[in-house]
């Protein structure tokens, strides 16, 4: 009996110690919640967000409040309370919060303010109110949108055409550019014109009109401005052409593709051609659009009209709508996205303008291809070449020999396929060959005065 009493006494003492340990470790613990991380994108704009991570591993979180204070004005931005059991505390031991708020709508103004985070845990301390964390940080509010001024006059475009928009912005920005029918074109700054943005734009050939055209800018605080751009779209009709595919052509050209592309149907040369002329063509054009989308050079090298292939006849125009027939049966359609020039076999090909070679390789239907970056998102493409006299990274001068013409790719005879792209959009090369167009639509705008 005495042993039983002793055992009960030991168990009682152990239970009392365990209870007191629980009480002091969990219920009367004195550590406030821990603010592990706060992420703010400063300055804070009209639409701001704060991301924070809080934890309290003992008694758990009871309440979180976030305030913004400026002078005598203080507004509650966020409040959340968590269920608390009087014995077991809060089950929420950690919490990540993303809090969005709009300072301008809350009555704040641009300038300095203080962001305050207050958090309480589920401890019994402080009259069961728990331990409190107070965190403060001075923040900068930028609640004014950037001001945009378009400096260039009305912008004339045709389907497949291009133009230059010049504008200035009142403050440093995170992003800017011109939007046409939902497609964004990036503006560039040049050393000799530090206060202006120059944005080459294009209207894709399959779009006959413009529903929206505006400059958009987002400042470092995330405030966004839009300003409409004056434009006029002139209708333009492109030619329709018929191309007959012969058995001799299939036997001569398809092996070149069968060797390089395993996905091409191999049991029938006609099926192989249809695949090359549709699937591979689309894939190649997407790849070109990616390569020729953004200039990595800081200069604009075009100060004259583009050079054409010397002593060459024009065999096909930009925008030609081609229909392909085989033995009288229609087998496909395509839009020609460049100019075809034919001269003598293996004719020397000059660079149309000064620029940097960014691509020199075999490229599907275009065969051996060179792409040159001229700055401001303007690129020229030279296809069906015999080989390469330049390499990626080379800076070439206007008129410099870069290659020789040939029949590589989907070419029926020796010629040069010449294309122009503006930020990934194929555009009418004839515009860039026309001295008057280049002067009035492009070069004269660099002289636009800044008010």
UniProtKB/TrEMBL annotation:
Report the source organism: Thermodesulfatator atlanticus
The organism's superkingdom is given as Bacteria
Protein name from the UniProt record: M23 family metallopeptidase
Database matches in InterPro entries: Cell_wall_metabolism_enzyme, Dup_hybrid_motif, M23ase_b-sheet_dom
Q: Name one GO molecular function term.
A: metalloendopeptidase activity
Query: Which residue intervals define the domain M23ase beta-sheet core in the entry?
Result: 335-429
Q: Which UniProt keywords apply?
A: Signal
Q: Record's CDD domains?
A: M23_peptidase
User: Quick check: keyword Oxidoreductase in the entry?
Assistant: no
Q: Any keyword Signal? A: yes
């Amino acid at each position: 009996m005495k042993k039983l009493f002793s055992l009960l006494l030991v168990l009682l003492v152990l239970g009392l110690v365990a209870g007191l340990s629980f009480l002091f470790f969990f219920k009367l613990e004195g550590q406030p919640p821990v603010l592990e991380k706060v992420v703010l994108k400063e300055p804070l704009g009209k639409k701001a967000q704060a991301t924070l991570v809080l934890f309290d591993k003992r008694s758990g979180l009871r309440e979180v409040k976030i305030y913004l204070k400026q002078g005598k004005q203080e507004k509650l931005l966020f409040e959340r309370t968590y269920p608390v059991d009087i014995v077991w505390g809060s089950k929420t031991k950690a919490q990540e919060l993303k809090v969005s708020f709009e300072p301008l709508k809350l009555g704040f103004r641009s300038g300095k303010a203080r962001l305050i985070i207050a958090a309480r845990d589920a401890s019994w301390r402080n009259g069961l109110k728990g331990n409190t964390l107070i965190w403060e940080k001075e923040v900068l509010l930028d609640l004014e949108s950037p001001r945009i001024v378009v400096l260039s006059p009305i912008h004339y475009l045709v389907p497949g055409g291009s133009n230059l928009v010049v504008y200035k912005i009142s403050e440093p920005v995170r992003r800017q550019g011109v939007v046409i029918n939902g497609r964004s074109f990036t503006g560039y700054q040049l050393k000799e014109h530090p206060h202006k943005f120059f944005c080459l734009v294009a209207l894709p050939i399959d779009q006959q009109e413009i529903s929206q055209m505006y400059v958009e800018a987002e400042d470092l605080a995330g405030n966004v401005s839009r300003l409409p751009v004056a434009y006029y779209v002139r209708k333009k009709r492109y030619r329709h052409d018929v191309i007959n595919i012969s058995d001799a052509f299939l036997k001569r050209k398809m092996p070149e593709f069968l060797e390089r592309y395993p996905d091409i149907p191999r049991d029938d040369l006609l099926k192989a051609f249809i695949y090359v002329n549709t699937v591979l063509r689309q894939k190649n054009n997407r790849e070109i659009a990616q390569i020729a989308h953004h200039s990595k050079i800081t200069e604009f090298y075009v100060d004259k009209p583009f050079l054409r292939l010397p002593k060459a006849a024009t065999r096909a125009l930009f925008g030609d709508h081609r229909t392909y027939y085989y033995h009288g049966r229609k087998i496909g359609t395509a839009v020609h996205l460049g100019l075809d020039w034919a001269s003598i076999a293996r004719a020397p090909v000059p660079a149309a303008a000064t620029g940097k070679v960014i691509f020199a390789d075999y490229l599907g239907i275009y065969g051996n291809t060179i792409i040159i970056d001229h700055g401001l998102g303007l690129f020229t493409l030279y296809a069906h070449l015999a080989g390469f006299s330049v390499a990626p990274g080379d800076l070439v001068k206007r008129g410099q020999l870069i290659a020789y013409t040939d029949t590589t790719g989907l070419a029926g005879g020796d010629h040069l396929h010449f294309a122009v792209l503006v930020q990934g959009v194929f555009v009418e090369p004839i515009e860039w060959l026309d001295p008057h167009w280049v002067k009035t639509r492009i070069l004269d705008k660099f002289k636009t005065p800044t008010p």
